[in-house]
Every structure is written in C-alpha cells, then in structure tokens.
Design a protein that fits this description.
This protein is mainly alpha-helical. It has one domain: Cation efflux protein transmembrane domain (Alpha-lytic protease prodomain-like), CATH 1.20.1510. Helices cover about 70% and strands about 0% of the residues. The protein contains three helices and no strands. The termini are far apart. The model has no long low-confidence stretch (mean pLDDT about 85). Bound molecules: zinc ion. The site of zinc ion has 4 residues, from loops.
C-alpha cells in the first residue's frame, strides 16, 4: 500500500470516527440537528471509500486495455465526490426550491 492509499484509508477511519461521534451525540441528546449532521457524515464516509478505490485503480500499471495507465480513474472519483457537495451548496438545484 503506497502513501496515497494509506492516507485514503486513514481518511475512511477518521470519517467513520466522526460519524460515530455524531451518532453517539444524537443518541445521547436526541438532537435532530446532530442527527442531520450524522447523516451528512455518511456522505463523507462514502466519498472516502470511493477515493480509496479509485486511488487503487489509478495505481495499477498500464495494460493492454489501458495502454496509458489508469490514472484518469481519479477524475471519476473527483466528479462523484463533487456532486453531493454541489447539491448541498446549490439550493436552487433542489426540487423543493423550484418556483411553482
Ligand atoms: Zn486496465
């Protein structure tokens, strides 16, 4: 496992830790705000898992089907991880915010 994969795996561990802390905080307090924040953290866990997977794919050497290597796989990860952030940061994209 190279340095990028190690750091991506560590980011999964941190995302799971944060999710667990927020879930525990919700469980102890019953706060809906903490529940919402914990659910949002699920996206971070998924994004970290996608990042690790694509880093592993990108680190594979060139083969017959991909003579220029697999490094472009990381661009797919970047797009996949950008979509949830765009949805959260662009209220106009949500169906409930569309004008009648
Ligand atoms: Zn290949």
């Amino acid at each position: 496992m190279d340095k990028r994969q190690t750091l991506a795996a560590a980011s999964i561990a941190v995302a799971l830790l944060v999710l667990g802390l927020k879930g525990t905080a919700f469980w102890l307090t019953g706060s809906v705000a903490l529940y919402s924040d914990a659910l949002e953290s699920v996206i971070n866990v998924v994004a970290a898992c996608v990042a690790l997977y694509t880093i592993r794919v990108a680190s594979q050497p060139a083969d017959a089907e991909h003579p220029y290597g697999h490094s472009k796989a990381e661009y797919f990860s970047a797009v996949l991880e950008e979509v949830p952030f765009r949805r959260r940061s662009s209220p106009g994209m949500l169906p409930a915010d569309e004008p009648p």
